[in-house]
Design brief:
Strand 5 (about 105-110), helix 3 and strand 6 (about 130-140) form a beta-alpha-beta unit. The longest helix is centred in the N-terminal third of the chain and has 18 residues, at about 20-35. This protein is an alpha/beta fold and about 190 residues long. Helix content is about 25%, strand content about 30%. Strands 4-3-2-5-6-7 form a six-stranded mixed sheet, sandwiched between helices. Strands 1-9-8 form a three-stranded antiparallel sheet.
Length: about 190
């Protein structure tokens, strides 16, 4: 952890360091570049807000290896997410372009229940994409309620409340360069 950052006292422990994130992104980019070597281009669809840091770093890494990388964003909201996600999804920001015949890679910060991601994959497939795969920086295997095919996974983590590197609590902690477990005392105050 960096010295003197405002958030350090709120973090119980670091789960994934900044260096581990950087190295894993390079590994994922190499793997995906090799799998998509014959494609003219790939379309990365970042899921806002949590994936924005991962998306930026991953797009740069993949672009260096694979050539043309196109970028899109979506924002979705899952009802009842506070207790348990219901899987009922509302689109807050849709794609700005047609994805028919595009090779789409959904860029996710974290897969927990899998309900929202499952819906999103069906939605993108219904828009006639040539292929749809997922790259997720984090996955919580113990939280999964529906089996979603996530081809590229950075780290499996335990089912704890994590923040940082795009992940937030009440819109805070997104700028942290690492992933950390938030102290229960922080969210029990709210």
């Amino acid at each position: 952890m960096g010295e003197g950052n405002w958030y350090d006292a709120d973090i119980e422990r670091v789960v994934v360091t900044e260096e581990q994130i950087h190295n894993k992104i390079q590994d994922l980019a190499k793997q995906i570049a090799a799998d998509y070597v014959r494609m003219e281009s790939v379309l990365l669809v970042g899921v806002l807000k949590g994936a924005f840091m991962f998306m930026a770093d991953f797009a740069r890494a993949l672009g260096r290896l694979a050539g043309a990388v196109e970028v899109e964003f979506m924002a979705v909201s899952s009802y009842g997410q506070r207790a348990t996600s219901s899987g009922v999804v509302r689109i807050l920001k849709d794609l700005d372009r047609d994805i028919a015949n595009k090779h789409v890679i959904v860029v996710e910060d974290i897969v927990d229940s899998g309900l929202t991601l499952s819906w999103l994959l069906k939605y993108l497939e219904s828009r006639s994409a040539a292929s749809v795969e997922v790259v997720a920086l984090l996955r919580k295997p113990d939280a999964i309620k529906v089996n979603v095919p996530v081809k590229y996974i950075g780290f499996d983590i335990s089912n704890e409340f994590v923040v940082g590197y795009g992940l937030d609590f009440a819109e805070r902690y997104r700028e942290m360069p690492y992933i950390g477990v938030l102290r229960p005392s922080v969210y029990s105050r709210v």
